[in-house]
């Protein structure tokens, strides 16, 4: 059994790679130090805390591990080494992640040594199914490959908008894909799950928004593949991204998980907007995340049809009223108790209602929400530049978009289902991110998400001029990840193994 | 050294797997052998110092002193340390202080009882952050080798020679072990085998570069000089005995290509013994890996930094069991070292002292080295706890009056 206090302490330091710097002599330490061993007692109280979470390091030395310790057995083999930060002032151990090493090949260690690496928040190692999931950021990826290093620069706000809206966003998906016919789907690496995807998306959203993490007063996490039945993803996100003011070792932030199948994330957009608009909330910015390691039974098993389409990833949105890139003009939601897709407690994989998932479920709700919001706003499909339908498979979104009267150029930019698969709670949010990546100022975007169970949230967004300025901040956008030359393809067996996690 | 402590008897068990034996049985065997050698009765013992690195973890044994008391029917002061050298150091201090005249120093480890999780425990104990990052007990040794290669810019032909030199360390130690009835491995290996094992694993160091997991015990009787004289045996004196400490986290250390703690301990032990280590012909180093033996030769000052491999490579050409140092022969790990003799952590240091004791007394049998006309006059033991986190250097020899 793991020890909860030890787990908490290791995570507290390791998830964020907390370090200290002596303000007198400049010596730096991994971990939190109360005084500098160089300067002794006189440095007491003069240590400043730094962290390496948004930093980049250099892989100094490495070796190959093919017989890991028990808890790393599921990684089977990996490159492991010593990473330095700040020109060697801090050195930490670390493993390279997102690398499938094929046995039988000689490894030239010097081809890795000296390269820049980015710390990544991942699962630390395997534990029993009833234990706390350990995490750490002593996992690194090569900065010159799939995921480049990006600085997090906090900028002061320029403009206050009348309506609340999206201030920044980030979409994240893994480096691995399975390709079957025309469909490519994202596959998590074995140390990734919905929690790590939520953190990655949140990290990218902070970078894109330029909003200080301390000003984010609430975080909502929507997912249907939380590794825990009880214990929020949002608490991990708040802790790792240090959302809200730091107060001792707690964050002054409200964090909550939401669940409504695939619309767990989008449902909270309006709540985030309302919260930042309420003058007494004290919340300037609220973060909404939808992320999933979409679950599906293996093919041939009941529910295995989903295995054709499930992907991995998610997106995070920061809502506020300052420096908005897309104002939220209107919303409309509808709900009915339609059990077209479900997963009973304790079951590993969801079940679905076969052909009923289409007509009485998806189409009915999406059609209702999209039609109603346009009706209320007095808009025709041609008044909207982009339509983002929920995309559980390649056919549904196309059918509903055309039925509603949208042209291909209006909805095709949003469709990522053929590139990263159905990311459940991350699905519509990732589609919206792909559209925001290319939208011009003063364009209308209509989003209609869908969640089984069932319901749909429609939002009408209007982009502002700031969308162009902020775009420059984000290199790791949807296109960058889907058309990345470092994407690695895996076969069906590897896909199932990676998806199962460590 | 004032009030110079003397070793009057040593004993040990075979190292390897002792499936059927409790830890108590092993220490009993070692202590009986040691006390037989110098004809000491257990009632003569005034204190016991015992070492085990992690019996509380492997065998869920806390209060190891208690079972030692049951075994010996003694109610004298007993203390437990993590390594044999640490126990010996503490015992030496007590004898020097004149507190005791005769004490037992013992070491024990039962690692195969937790074969399933021993590597996790070893690594977690040795360097927790490296463990959390995925490190294995072997990886730090390999990283040190990488650091060494980079620091001294060893490339091309020289890199091949370095790799052969490291292989020769294992070959030499296995050959030495064939003459040691207590050794865990009794078979010779070749440079080719060592290199093939690395190649098939695609690693800088392979199966034959690392010491095994072992069970075993070792013991010695330590007395004051005056008490040794009454025993009518030839004592071997502890001339210098010291330790030094370094960070737990290997990557955070200043220099990754050496063990600073070993260097400091060696210097201090040498000052204490008023002897230069360079005059010592036989040493036991803590070769948890072949890389560790190489680096230790430099840490102890036998070779300038970045050069020890050259001398080892020269010995490999004629498959010699000694290295050349300034025209003299240096014998290292004549018992097979941790590599072939075995490495039951808490007992390992005892086996190292056992070997030097035998060599200095001239009763090492087939393994006996000659030094000029007679037996060597002094020897040295380097033992580590963790991956260079603690280093103990003990210099043994004849007391200079």
CATH topology of the domain at 6-116 and 213-230 in chain B: Peroxisomal Thiolase, Chain A, domain 1
Strand content of chain B: 15-25%
Instruction: Give the CATH class of the largest domain in chain A.
Output: Alpha Beta
Query: In CATH terms, what is the architecture of the largest domain in chain A?
Result: 3-Layer(aba) Sandwich
Overall helicity of chain A: 10-25%
Average pLDDT confidence of chain B is 95
Shape of chain A: globular
Named CATH topology of the largest domain in chain A: Peroxisomal Thiolase, Chain A, domain 1
Strand order of the largest sheet of chain A: 15-12-16-17-9-18-23-22-21
Gyration radius of chain A, to the nearest Å? Answer: 22 Å
Provide the fold topology:
The complex is a heterodimer of chains A (502) and B (401).
Chain A: H1 4-14, E1 18-22, E2 28-30, E3 47-51, E4 57-65, E5 78-85, E6 90-96, E7 116-123, E8 135-142, E9 160-172, E10 176-180, E11 183-187, H2 194-209, E12 216-222, H3 233-240, E13 245-247, E14 250-252, E15 254-258, H4 269-277, E16 285-293, E17 312-322, E18 326-335, E19 341-342, E20 351-352, H5 358-377, E21 386-389, H6 396-404, H7 408-411, H8 417-420, H9 427-436, E22 444-448, E23 455-463, H10 466-471, H11 478-482, E24 488-489, H12 492-500
Parallel strand pairs in A: 6-8, 10-24, 12-15, 12-16, 21-22
Antiparallel strand pairs in A: 1-2, 1-3, 4-5, 4-7, 5-6, 7-8, 9-17, 9-18, 10-11, 13-14, 16-17, 18-23, 19-20, 22-23
Chain B: E1 6-12, H1 23-38, E2 47-51, H2 55-58, H3 64-72, E3 78-81, H4 84-96, E4 102-110, H5 118-126, H6 128-132, H7 139-151, H8 156-177, H9 191-201, E5 215-223, H10 225-230, E6 236-245, H11 260-273, E7 282-284, H12 290-299, H13 308-317, E8 323-325, E9 328-332, H14 337-341, H15 345-361, E10 378-385, E11 390-397
Parallel strand pairs in B: 2-3, 2-4, 7-9, 7-10
Antiparallel strand pairs in B: 1-5, 1-6, 4-5, 6-11, 8-9, 10-11
């Amino acid at each position: 059994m793991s020890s909860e206090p030890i787990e908490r302490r290791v995570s507290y330091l390791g998830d964020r790679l907390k370090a200290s710097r002596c303000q007198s002599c400049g010596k730096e330490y991994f971990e939190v130090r109360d005084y500098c061993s160089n300067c002794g007692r006189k440095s007491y109280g003069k240590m400043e805390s730094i962290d390496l979470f948004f930093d980049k390091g250099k892989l100094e030395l490495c070796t190959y591990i093919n017989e890991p310790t028990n808890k790393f057995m599921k990684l089977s083999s990996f490159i492991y080494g010593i990473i330095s930060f700040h020109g060697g002032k801090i050195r930490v151990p670390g493993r390279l992640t997102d690398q499938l090493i094929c046995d039988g090949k000689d490894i030239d260690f010097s081809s890795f040594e000296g390269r820049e690496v980015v710390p990544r928040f991942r699962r630390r190692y395997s534990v029993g199914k009833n234990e706390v999931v350990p995490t750490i950021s002593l996992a690194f990826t090569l900065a010159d490959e799939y995921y480049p290093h990006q600085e997090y620069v906090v900028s002061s706000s320029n403009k206050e908008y009348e309506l609340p809206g999206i201030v920044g966003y980030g979409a994240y998906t893994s480096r691995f894909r399975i390709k079957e016919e025309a469909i490519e789907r994202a596959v998590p690496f074995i140390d990734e799950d919905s929690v790590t995807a939520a953190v990655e998306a949140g990290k990218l959203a902070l970078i894109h928004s330029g909003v200080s993490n301390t000003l984010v007063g609430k975080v909502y996490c929507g997912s249907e593949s939380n590794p825990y039945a009880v214990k929020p993803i949002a608490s991990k996100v708040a802790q790792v991204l240090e959302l809200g003011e730091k107060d001792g070792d707690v964050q002054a932030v409200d964090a909550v998980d939401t669940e409504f199948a695939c619309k767990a994330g989008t449902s909270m957009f309006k709540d985030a907007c309302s919260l930042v608009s309420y003058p007494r909330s004290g919340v300037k910015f609220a973060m909404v995340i939808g992320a999933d390691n979409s679950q599906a039974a293996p093919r041939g098993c009941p529910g295995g049809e989903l295995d054709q389409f499930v992907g991995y990833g998610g997106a995070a949105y920061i809502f506020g009223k300052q420096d908005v890139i897309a104002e939220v003009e209107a919303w409309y939601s509808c709900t009915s108790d339609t059990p077209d897709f479900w997963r009973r407690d304790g079951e590993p994989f969801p079940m679905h209602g076969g052909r009923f998932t289409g007509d009485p479920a998806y189409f009915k709700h999406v059609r209702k929400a999209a039609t109603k919001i346009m009706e209320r706003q007095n808009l025709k499909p041609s008044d909207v530049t982009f339509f983002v339908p929920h995309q559980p498979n390649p056919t549904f979104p196309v059918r509903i978009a055309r039925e509603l009267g949208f042209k291909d150029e209006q909805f095709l930019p949003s469709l990522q289902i053929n590139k990263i698969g159905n990311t459940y709670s991350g699905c519509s949010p990732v589609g919206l991110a792909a559209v925001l990546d290319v939208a011009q100022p003063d364009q209308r975007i209509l989003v209609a998400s869908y969640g089984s169970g069932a319901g749909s949230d429609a939002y009408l967004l209007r982009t502002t001029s700031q969308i162009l300025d902020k775009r420059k901040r984000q290199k790791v956008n949807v296109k960058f990840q889907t058309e990345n030359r470092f994407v690695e393809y895996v076969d069906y067996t590897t896909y199932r193994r990676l998806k199962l996690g460590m | 050294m004032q009030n110079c402590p003397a070793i009057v008897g040593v004993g040990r068990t075979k190292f390897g797997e002792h499936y059927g034996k409790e830890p108590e049985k092993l220490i009993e065997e070692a202590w009986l052998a040691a006390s037989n050698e110098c004809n000491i009765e257990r009632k003569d013992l005034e204190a016991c110092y015992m070492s085990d690195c992690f019996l509380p973890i492997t065998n869920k044994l806390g209060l190891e002193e208690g079972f030692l008391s049951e075994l010996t029917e003694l109610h004298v002061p007993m203390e437990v340390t993590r390594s044999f050298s640490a126990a010996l150091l503490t015992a030496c201090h007590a004898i020097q202080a004149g507190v005791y005249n005769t004490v037992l120093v013992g070491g024990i480890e039962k690692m195969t009882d937790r074969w399933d999780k021993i590597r996790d425990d070893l690594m977690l104990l040795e360097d927790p952050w490296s463990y959390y990052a995925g490190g294995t007990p072997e990886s730090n040794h390999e990283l040190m080798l990488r650091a060494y290669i980079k620091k001294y810019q060893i490339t091309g032909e020289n890199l091949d020679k370095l790799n052969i030199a490291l292989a020769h360390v294992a070959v030499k130690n296995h050959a030495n072990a064939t003459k040691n009835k207590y050794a865990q491995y009794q078979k010779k290996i070749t440079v080719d085998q060592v290199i093939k094992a690395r190649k098939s694993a695609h690693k800088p160091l392979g199966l034959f570069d690392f010491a095994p997991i072992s069970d075993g015990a070792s013991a010695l009787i330590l007395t004051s000089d005056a008490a040794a004289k009454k025993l009518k045996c030839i004592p071997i004196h502890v001339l210098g005995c010291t330790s030094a400490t370094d960070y737990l986290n290997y990557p955070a250390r200043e220099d990754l290509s050496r063990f600073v703690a070993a260097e400091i301990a060696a210097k201090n032990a040498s000052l204490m013994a008023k002897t230069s280590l360079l005059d010592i012909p036989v040493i036991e180093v803590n070769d948890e890996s072949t890389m560790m033996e190489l680096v230790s030769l430099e840490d102890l000052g036998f070779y300038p930094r970045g050069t020890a491999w050259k001398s080892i490579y020269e010995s490999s050409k004629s498959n010699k069991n000694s290295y050349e140092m300034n025209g003299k022969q240096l014998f290292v790990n004549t018992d097979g070292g941790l590599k072939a003799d075995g490495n039951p952590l808490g007992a390992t240091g005892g086996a190292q002292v056992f070997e030097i004791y035998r060599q200095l007394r001239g009763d090492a049998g087939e393994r006996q080295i000659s030094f000029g006309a007679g037996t060597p006059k002094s020897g040295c033991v380097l033992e580590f706890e963790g991956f260079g986190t603690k280093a103990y250097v003990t210099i043994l020899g004849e007391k200079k009056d």
